[in-house]
Design goal:
This protein is of the alpha+beta class. Among the domains are: 171 residues, Multidrug efflux transporter AcrB transmembrane domain (Multidrug efflux transporter AcrB transmembrane fold), CATH 1.20.1640.10; 96 residues, Multidrug efflux transporter AcrB pore domain (Alpha-Beta Plaits); 227 residues, Multidrug efflux transporter AcrB transmembrane fold (Up-down Bundle), CATH 1.20.1640.10; 105 residues, 2-Layer Sandwich (Alpha-Beta Plaits); 33 residues, no CATH class. It has 36 helices and 32 strands. The C terminus is likely disordered. This is Efflux RND transporter permease subunit.
Length: 1038
Amino acid sequence: MSEDRQKQPWYLLFFHNRYLLGVTLVLIAAAGWASYQALPRTEDPVITNRDPMVLTYFPGASAERVEAQVTEPLETALKEIAEIKHVESTSRAGISVLAIELADEVNADTKEQFFSRIRDKIGEASRLLPSGADEPIFDGRRGAVAFTLIAAVRGDDDAQPTTALLSRQAEELADRLRNVPGTDIVRVYGEAEEEWTVTVDDAELTALGLTLGDVARALRISDSKQAAGAVFGKRHELQIEVSGSFTTAARIREIPLVQKDGLSVRVGDVAEVSRSMQTPVSSLGLSDGAPTVFVAARVSADQRVDLWSDKARETVERFQPELGRGMRADVVFDQEVYTSARLGELGGNLFLGALVVMAVVVLTMGWRSSLVISFALPLTAAMTLFLFARGGGELHQMSIFGMIIALGLLIDNAIVVTDEVRKHMAAGMKAADAVGATLRHLFVPLLSSTLTSIFAFMPIMLLPGSTGDFVGSIGTSVVIALASSLVLSLTLIAALAGRLGANRPWEDRLPRFLRHGLGGPGLTQATTRFLTITTAKPLLGISMTAVLSLVGFGLASTLGSQFFPRTDRDMFVLEVTLPSHTRIDHTAALTRAIDARLESHPDITHRNWLIGGSIPSVYYNHLMQNDGAANFAQAFLKAERADDVARLVVELQDEFDQSFPEARMLVKKFAQGPPIAADVEFRLSGPSTDVLRELGEEVRREVARHPEILHATTSINRDEPKLWYQADEDLARAAGLSPGVLAEQLESSLRGQQAGSMIEGVETMPVTVRYSDEDRDSVTGVRRINFQAAEGATGWAPLSALGTLELMPEVGSITRRDGVRTNNILGFAREGSLPIEITRSVTAAVEQLALPVGYTLEVGGESENQNEAIGNLGLYLPVLVLLTIGILILSFRSVRMAAILIAVGGLSVGYGLLATKFWGLPLSFNTILGSLGLIGLAFNDSIVVLSGIRANPKARAGAPHAIAAQVASNGRHLTSTTLTTMGSFLPLLLLIGGDFWPPLAVVLAGGVIGSTLLAFLFVPAAYRLLLCRKRDPQPSPA
């Protein structure tokens, strides 16, 4: 190696060593391709489950008892965990539900340790629960994550197999899906729990002097399933077991109940033994009108959805022939279809955006510059994918959209470097000298502009909580892409520009625009003359650009507010809610009537219902919160086209509200962003349920009065009917019966008693003893129930002889938040409305409400989520703003130049808001995200302009013509970077559409256009006004 080569600086290493340059190019491309193949793929980001639930059943207990004896002890125990943000509880008759919300700082890596602590606290508190309460059930796996595949096991054509048979086949399919590699969880919905029922005759038992409890006791002691010891020989050990366990119905019928005077009365003499479904059923499934059991499976977060889905579908197809006649298993939801479509759309947009960007570069800079710059796109994309994969990223719509944003930005550095190298070479410099001069001149400006852009997107990347899980990948993708672009532009792209940038003699025969791009000396001269005028009169240049920005800020108040828009999916949701005391049979009958209406609708292709609970989640923020709700049914409906959904939602809502007034009907599109219970929410908190009910009704009326509200409900509503048995204590004591014994005998008479179990293969079914339905399904039948007198007393006493039954009201449910009783007022908005605006309107009315001492009113719903998200967005903002200001000051060693750039960042937001108004979009959280990113992007052009002015002695001294000429000389790459940024968004706005992307893309595109105008007009004018007023326009030393 020559002495001159050895003295070359490190940043020319890639220029001089073409082998190193080639190997590095290939290595980066290979790493990017391998990462692309390995990255997990989903349609939407996985939102970390910070919302576990605790369910505790307390059969027979009222809502107030459940609250006092179950909910309150559990809540008290959980208060000791500081990372719990909120605990919202619902106490209903027989069940307590605790919805826990962990702090935003809890992430996917740490959540399990907090789940473990919650389990421990719940376990400790369970020892304080009353004897009739079941063990609390902790469920930490039902977060805001959609199932990946849902199969429907149902009857084929006109066949009507029993739900029990469908359930057995569904369980078998579930086991098969659990064995598919990469499966995270599989659950079955709408299945029937089977049991063996021993239905006794009340009259015959009474005649024999027996009770239902006697029959159950006889069965339990006859069902021998426990070990009976072992024989320990010298060489062998033999286990002993007593025969007699329940294996057939005949065995149960032969159990003796009474043996007297040589006569034996057996179970079969006084009861019928049959196999049946447990009643009442907990849930029922319907798929296109046919009884169905759903099998829902979810893939692990680190797997590729497309590969897993192929295996899961194949499993369902292989299972189909084993079902036999009259049954079928169909895949009714496959997330991979939507994932491929969404990623395909965005990937296509990325490709089209790249083509537009390259076309712009060819037109503005010529073919040879575009040849060099064309290396920047694939290289940066490959490096971004590699780093993204190493950081545990996933490919989904948010991360790809981040790359689309970065597409128009990452090429900026390459454009500036290539243009500068070619200008030096055109001025007669050797290639190596041109590359060296370019890197020495541009290193600090490009570093500072890239860092300011990175800092602008870092609040998005660092955003905590569910909102951060949702949109954080946008910031991560942009930050990685910008950092990669800087590194590549200062190394490989600069080297390629030096090697490929020189014109060849034969190129002189090409058209000028192919050699140098559109424009020319005439355009440059005209630009210089115009800029000379605006620079000589700084206030003119400043006002020309600032006025439009200020107009944008002024119009911002006229934009409606929105958190996140609805999604543009071909599926939507239908919910049916009846009064809380409704039986599931009635809910099912109404659901079938609604489904019949839907079947006749030509634009709806598929209908899938779950009655008695939430339908398995098919969208990432669809929460399943209605376990065991017999009065509730939910469906996901599939439309012929996604464009039809908005119209169908409005039409069906109006139709069903009129046709089924007895139910609360909600037809709604799936929403974007973190999950919420309702669009509009107010929370009233205080000690008394009566006061909360009255105040809540007033607030509910205000919410319902708004024209954009469909339905409004309260969580503590009117009392529900309940039968109270008023026992005559004197008569009861004479019969030796206490109120507690009366309650126990009534409970066993109406619900039955467990009496062993039957083993069939690998299944274990309970054996239940109960009276016939005729004795239990009416008040008349209940009055005929006989109480057995206590030991020492004689005979039987009918229920009607010891007291009376009275129908009286009782609180149906009690909701609490962080240990305080809370009435949640929920409002459900019409399609196309803006819930935040509705909330503001209603708030103005309810603030006039006079609250008693000790009662508070809070706003929830979409407004609360947006306020929290904006607050979280600002957590790191002060530090990042100070870092940005510090970088600008250090880069230029001037506070006033930094002030000019900060002003540019602020004014560019006004242009973004003006574009938002022009496009007719609301002010959403995406607009805020775009504005944050825009502030950093707006610096880029202005930094280049200020760097050029400072490097030009005459311009630095304040000569208007010199400043204008210097700015005009940068016009080619300023225009190129603006048009490439615009070009990257163009296909997204024109070809994909939808409601989610435009707010962010429009504010960025409008702001980038504004930042270019500011760089051309505002920056030189402000520079001369602030830095040259007291200086003679004479050349000064560099």
